[in-house]
Here is the input.
Amino acid sequence: MPTAVITGASQGLGRAMARALAERGWSLIVDARHVGQLAAAVGGLGAAVGPLGAAAGGLGAVTTIPGDVTDPAHRAAIAAAIAPAGRLDLLMNNASRLGPSPQPPLRSYPLAELGQVYQTNVLAPLALIQLLAGPLTAAGGMVVNVSSDAATDAYPGWGGYGSAKAALDQLTAVLATEEPGLRWYAFDPGDMRTAMHQRAFPGEDISDRPEPEVAGAALLRLLSQRPPSGRYRASDYPEASRAPGTQRGPAVTR
Here is the structure.
């Protein structure tokens, strides 16, 4: 059975993809920082939660590994969970850090916080790619780095998050040239009705944004088609269609 690692699987797009892939028979290794939220997110999928997770046998088996992707020991635990299979079909770097809410202008952005944004959104994904390169190569696998339109468009107040996602996009593009045997996707899901999106727009009604499952349907189609490496948007696919006028700012992606 195919195997996937999904980071930030306790909510939003990560949770939607974990459930969708498990229902399709994938074996999953999922992480998130909060044990309870992660357990609730994969409830009913046969997951077992422990200090380092525990595999539940059968199709759609789920291994939960609570922790922070910026922690090297946590990333090593993810790699150890993959080792018995020796291959990895999909790495989905979905875990993300928004930064301060509301988003500050760059001239007053706290540099310590900006460093944490880059640690989560840029360095941790690259560290996982480096650590899991062997199993990914063995499977001829795919890497999905979840991006945002803030990576390509200049929004006032979004210099921290947006520049981190732009850096992630560039890493994806360079890796595609360096490792052509794999598929490398920067995936922009667009607006989603998520807790992170709500933090990006405090006090605003975001009920008109699509549920993460809408972008998830587009990503499933992308994975099934395995197009050439590149940057793709959920709106490139019919499954991601929505009524015009619902985009009211940069999309955050968890």
The longest helix spans residues 111-131. The chain has a mean pLDDT of 85. The two ends are 26 Å apart (CA to CA).
